[in-house]
Specification:
By secondary structure, the protein is an alpha/beta fold. The protein is built from 23 helices and 13 strands. The protein has a 6-stranded mixed beta sheet, sandwiched between helices. The protein has a 5-stranded parallel beta sheet with strand order 6-5-7-8-9, sandwiched between helices. Strands 3-4 form a two-stranded antiparallel ribbon. The protein binds glucose-6-phosphate.
């Protein structure tokens, strides 16, 4: 189908006009006008309940947004993704993470290959390996069982594993220690290795390309640590495995490709947590729970693929995000999980959303004339309320918030959980309805403080509620955000699966490394600021008096 440039689409134009009527009202009035609003704007899929009644919308807004999705060819592009077409145009690749969670009995032929068969062959290999590590059948070089697992990777090869390990810690084997090293800052590795016995430690080197400087630097130092501790180069065979698409580089690093778990170029880094990159997750929670996680992903994929847009949770969430970004001008979104286990969720979603949709040109290279991806950030629940929520309530920028809660705690204790959950609902209420000057006065507030205590409200939230955090729910939750990102990216007409913006910094750093290391004074030919900074760095580095302890 032919799709017009975004700002020429009829539904976009209609939304621009419609926005004026939304601007002229507020959530207080909208709720007063329709006492059933809370029932109207609700949707459920795969155990995730979304209340979006506190978004600044009417039924007309939703109707127009769905019209925009249709006019933008969302269904067609979604189907292209599921068929394995090369929708990642700038890298000429498929974006087929949905195949990673397809059940064994499904078949998906891409370029003559049944990718589901390949996926399950690797899952079987992971299952066998993870089971051997968990049972103690996999022995280290000195015959000891593995007690520590250290995942070394960065970006998409780190954030998913860390987030999933933290999120599913309740289900993990407590006698196994899992640690994650990503930063090339030596402190990250040194602190992660502190207290670990080398002969009980397994390193998983996770790198799609196996060419990432940070990961290879950390992996090399980890190997030196192990060889030094065990005094034998051959020990590497029992203590290092790799997750990668690049067998040649894995072998060159010295890891037996027998101990390599593959994935494919059609899995983007930030879409890889349920590929072999999830090996540490599987070791932590066991294969059975891992398959539940995959089931959760797949269930949401199926919902996204088949549900009408009016009832389609990721489509609606994506459309609401786009509405807030492009029509209400919100540049930032808060993600606040009210569950301690989800403490790394915001960091994970930050990469998923911002690396995917932080783009300035459309698929054909035309510069966009509208805003794309928003800034995503967040912290777990009530902690944020005692710090930065102030700005969300009374600051001058409107920041839509996703509040994520659960009806049951995995660690029930007295009143804790109801106290926690009351905050989810109370925050959504406070943000939506605020407090007027008359209400503040009625509380007996002295007149000179009234203005300070007024909260204008009309600040949008999504409330996502589920029964309890399980591997399955986590899978569905992540797939929900993935497809919401896809929905937005499709309407914006951008490539949500490349990340060229991170390249330039990497190239420049490679040029600067020798200038920092050089024994003799290098000739610096950068801009004057960079030259000065490098010179200062070299001078401070030579200064032996100030070496801290
Ligand atoms: C994710 C990005 C990026 C990538 C890392 C690690 O979508 O591509 O975060 O995951 O740069 O790359 P490797 O796995 O190749 O080491």
């Amino acid at each position: 189908m032919t799709v017009l440039p975004l700002r020429q689409r009829s539904t976009w134009l209609a939304l621009e006009t419609h926005e004026r009527s939304i601007d002229a009202t507020n959530l207080r009035s909208l709720f007063a006008k329709d006492p059933k609003r809370g029932e109207l704007f609700r949707v459920e899929a795969e155990g995730l309940h979304l209340d979006y009644s506190k978004q600044r919308i009417t039924e007309e807004t939703v109707r127009l947004l769905i019209g925009l999705a249709n006019e933008s060819g969302l269904a067609e592009r979604r189907d292209q993704m599921f068929r394995g077409e090369h929708i990642n145009v700038s890298e000429d690749r498929a974006a087929l993470h949905v195949a990673l969670r397809m059940p064994k009995d499904v078949s998906l032929i891409v370029d003559g290959v049944d990718v589901v068969v390949e996926v399950h062959a690797v899952l079987d290999q992971m299952t066998s390996f993870a089971s051997r590590v968990r049972s103690g059948a996999w022995k280290g070089h000195t015959g000891k069982v593995i007690k520590n697992v250290v995942n070394i990777g960065i970006g998409g090869s780190d954030l998913g594993p860390v987030m999933a390990y933290e999120a599913l810690r309740y289900y993990s084997r407590r006698d196994l220690t899992l640690r994650f090293v990503s930063n090339v800052d030596s402190t990250d590795l040194v602190e992660a290795l502190r207290g670990l016995e080398a002969d009980e430690t397994l390193f998983i080197i996770s790198s799609k390309t196996f060419g990432t400087l940070e990961t290879l630097t950390n992996a090399t130092s980890a190997r030196e640590w192990l060889v030094e501790k065990l005094g034998d180069e051959t020990a590497v065979a029992k203590h290092f495995v790799a997750v990668s698409t690049n067998a040649e580089k894995v072998a060159a690093f010295g890891i037996d490709t027998e101990n390599m778990f593959v994935f494919w170029d059609w899995v983007g880094g930030r879409y890889s947590m349920e590929s072999a990159i999830g090996l540490s997750t599987m070791i932590a929670i066991g294969p059975e729970r891992y398959y539940e996680l995959l089931d959760g992903f797949h269930a949401m994929d199926e919902h996204f693929r088949t549900a009408p847009f009016e009832e389609n949770l990721p489509v609606l969430m994506g459309l609401l995000a786009l509405w807030n970004r492009d029509f209400l001008g919100c540049a930032s979104v808060g993600v606040m999980p009210y569950d301690q286990y989800l403490k790394r969720l915001a960091a994970y979603l930050q990469q998923l959303t911002m690396e995917s949709n932080g783009k300035h040109v459309t698929l054909d290279g035309t510069t966009v004339d509208y805003d794309t991806g928003a800034l995503y950030w967040g912290e777990p629940g009530t902690n944020g309320q005692h710090s930065f929520y102030q700005l969300i309530h009374q600051g001058t920028s409107i920041i839509p918030v996703d509040l994520i809660g659960f009806a049951k705690s995995l660690n029930p204790l007295g009143e804790h959980h109801d106290i926690l959950s009351s905050n989810v609902f109370a925050q959504a209420q406070a943000l939506a309805f605020g407090k007027t000057a008359d209400e503040v006065r009625a509380e007996g507030t002295p007149e000179h403080v009234v203005a300070h205590r007024v909260m204008e409200g009309n600040r949008p939230t999504n409330v996502l509620l589920a029964e309890i955090l399980t591997p399955r729910i986590l899978g569905s939750l992540i797939a929900l955000y993935e497809h919401s990102v896809f929905t937005q990216g499709t309407i914006w007409g951008i490539d949500s699966f490349d990340q060229w913006g991170v390249e330039l910094g990497k190239q420049l750093a490679v040029a600067i490394i020798p200038e920092l290391e050089s024994e003799s004074e290098p000739t610096l030919a950068h801009d004057s600021s960079t030259n000065e900074l490098i010179t200062l760095y070299r001078r401070l580095k030579r200064n032996e008096d100030t070496h801290g302890n």
